[in-house]
Amino acid sequence: MNDSATHPLHHSDAAASDTATTPSLRRGIRPVPRQPDLLFDDSLPDAWFAGDPGLSSFWSAFGILAGIAEQEFIDIGRALLGRMSNPAIIDETSRFLQQEAIHGAVHARMNRVLGDRDYPIEPARRFLLDIIGNIQTRFGDGAVIAWGVAAEQGIGEIGHAVMENPSVLDPAAELPRRLLLWHFYEEVEHQAALYDGFLHVYGDGSDSATLRRGGVALLLVTMALSLPLVSWVVCRHAFPGQQNRMRTWRPILRQLFGRNGLLRGGGANLRALTRKDFHPFDQHQPEAVLATRRDLCVRPEWERPVRSLKPTRDERRVQGPAGVLQTAAAAVGYLGDCARSTRHFLRVTTPA
Ligand SMILES: [Fe+2]
Ligand SMILES: [Fe+2]
User: Fold this and answer.
1) Distance from the alpha carbon of residue 158 to the mean position of ligand 1, in angstroms
2) Does 76 reside within a domain?
3) Protein residues with C-beta less than 5 angstroms from the ion ligand 1
4) Fewer CB within a 10 Å sphere, N or C end of the chain?
5) What ranges in 84-120 are assigned the alpha helix state H?
């Protein structure tokens, strides 16, 4: 997956032959851009999730990282947009991009409140951008696109878990609870969007599946590094002394990995994503979930008209995968990059 590995692109037959619809549209699902009226201020407590340091640190870290990752998804979507010919896929991608832009903006409102308390927002931003930037340097732009496709599947799976059991967020303060419900609802609503755009551009051949496998591996590395580390650094800042106690982290570990944990579907989805014939709708029937949870998560007055977006001017090169040896060498280099980025992040966030 590097610069020398540009393969001819081919549209999947199914996607190219039907220009009036998408898998989501065929199910009556159409992502709707919504602007929620969630305004954060300094009344937000640090321990905003159940009064618990570990849960609050993890979900604050999630919001900080989500605010940064959304911009990456937008860049990826806009790069794919430049290669799309199917009007229905273009419309769906535009809706997806608009949703992600608003997610980023609303998380930024909450992050500003945390930033005013010197939470490590900027170092976390630098850290995540570094480990994503290193993917681009080592493996090429196609790998960043595949990383984004995998990330959308992972977040969509957490979205499904939350929609199945929204009471998991009941102990959170009202505003962040509503932010997370709205965000996860829309993640379910657009779970297929970036994937369908990717399939339209890359086709459904073996190069496409190889890239997706790489995207899953890279997502696992970036998430395994960024979420725990940023949570730990947030905890050290907001709840000094609590960050190294096992009991701080037990509740969030239970919430994520316990019985009915929020990450229970992620592994199965990401494993399936590596299959040649994967589609997110093989894993779930989102129509019923979206209908049942609509009133809880979103409001009609939040809906905004769809803006058609231009492809990015600096169009990201849409590449295929590289050979096995090149990829293996890049992987070794990438792990070294990640170790350096991690050391730097910990150094700049260590209190004097
Ligand atoms: Fe999002
Ligand atoms: Fe998303």
Assistant:
1) 11
2) yes
3) 100, 103
4) C
5) 87-116
